[in-house]
Amino acid sequence: MADITMCEGTNCPKKETCYRFTAKPSEYRQSYFTTPPINGDVCEYFWDTAPKKVTTGIAYFDDVLGGFQRGQVVMLAGRSRNKSGS
Fold first, then answer.
1. What HEC string does 19-85 produce?
2. 2 with 27: CB under 8 angstroms?
3. For residues 82 and 10, what is the distance between their CA atoms, to the nearest angstrom?
4. CA 62, CA 28: separation in Å to the nearest integer?
5. N or C: which end of the chain has fewer CB within 10 A?
6. What whole-number distance in Å separates Cα of residue 64 and Cα of residue 54?
7. Do the Cβ atoms of 82 and 73 come closer than 8 Å?
8. Where are the chain's structural domains?
9. Start-to-end CA span in the chain (Å)
10. Reported pTM
11. In what order do the strands lie in the sheet with 68-76?
């Protein structure tokens, strides 16, 4: 169930990769844009569902005790997670 304002995707070239179009609507109540917010090829409400590129690398980070440790940094969709390593 999507607790978002969904879009019917009328005349939108990006609707197949937009969460507002592809999300599963609620069976009880679902809000939709009254008019699709697309302006030409641009939509300020576009919510990309395309897979994101994953970037990995080795970085050194300062741990809680103030010493430096080597760890693997994994970037996925703009978020980072540290994996301790030796």
1. HHHHCCCCCCCCEECCCCCEECCEECCCCECCCCCEEEEEEEEECCCCCEEEEEEEEECCEEEEEEC
2. no
3. 42
4. 50
5. C
6. 27
7. yes
8. 5-43, 54-84
9. 43
10. 0.57
11. 54-62, 68-76, 79-84
Taking only the tens of pLDDT, the chain with its 86 residues reads 568 999 999 989 999 999 999 999 998 899 999 998 998 889 999 999 877 766 666 555 555 555 555 555 555 444 334 444 44
Six-digit token string for 7: 């879009």
Please calculate the CA angle 54-70-72 and round it to the nearest 5 degrees: 15
Yes or no: say if 55 and 73 are a contact pair by the CB < 8 Å rule: no
Q: Residue 23 corresponds to which amino acid?
A: A
The letter for the amino acid at 70 is R
